[in-house]
Amino acid sequence: MAGVRHVVVFNWTAEATEEQRARVVEALSTLPAAVPEIRAYAFGPDLGINAGGGDFAVVADFADESDYLAYRDNAEHRRIIDEVIHPIMASRSAVQYRLAD
Amino acid sequence: MAGVRHVVVFNWTAEATEEQRARVVEALSTLPAAVPEIRAYAFGPDLGINAGGGDFAVVADFADESDYLAYRDNAEHRRIIDEVIHPIMASRSAVQYRLAD
C-alpha cells in the first residue's frame, strides 16, 4: 500500500537550551501512543557528522493523506508544536511524499 | 541495532523544469543497487498538501555512521549531486540522527 511520508528538518535558535531541546524529544515520544494514525515515527537531534546541517529531524509515516492530516491537526500535536517547539524554532523545512511499499 | 538515518529536504530553483526534476528521481532510483551500504532508501517530490513546504525529500537508512559516510562519499552519488541535483538546487537542509530499532 502506498503511504505518505512526512519529513521535517528543524533549526533551533541560538538561545535554545539543552533542556528545551530535550523537552522536544520527550514530548514527541508521547505522540505515537496519542495519535493512532501514526504508522511509523522516528526523530532525533543531528549527530554532528556534517557541518552546516539542521538541528533536528522528524520522519512520520501514514497510510494515506487523510491519516497525515489527522496527525498534523491533532490537538496534542498542535499543543507540543505551540508550547515546546515554536519557542526554540528558528526555521523549519518540510515535505510530504508518496511512499511506495 | 541502532542505525543512522539521513534526512534531507531540498528546494529547487524557480527555473527548474519538470524534466530536470524527473531526472533527480531517475538518478536517485539507481543508487540502492549501486551503493551496498544503503539499508533503506525512499524519496520523492512534495505532494503539495501544505503551502510553503520544500520541493523534494530523501530519507536514507544505514547500519552505522561508517555506512552513511560511504554513501555520502560514493562516487556515483557525488556525480548525481554535481550533475543532476546542484543545477536545480536552491537550498538544502539535512540532518543525520540515531535510529533506534
From TrEMBL, chains A, B:
Membrane-spanning residues: none
Annotated InterPro entries: Dabb (IPR013097), Dimeric_a/b-barrel (IPR011008), HS1/DABB1-like (IPR044662)
Location of the Stress-response A/B barrel domain: 4-97
Source organism phylogeny: Bacteria, Bacillati, Actinomycetota, Actinomycetes, Streptosporangiales
Domain of life of the organism encoding this protein: Bacteria
PANTHER family membership: PTHR33178, STRESS-RESPONSE A_B BARREL DOMAIN-CONTAINING PROTEIN
Entry-linked Pfam families: Dabb
Subunit structure and binding partners: Homodimer.
Protein name, UniProt field: Stress responsive alpha/beta barrel protein
Species of provenance: Allonocardiopsis opalescens
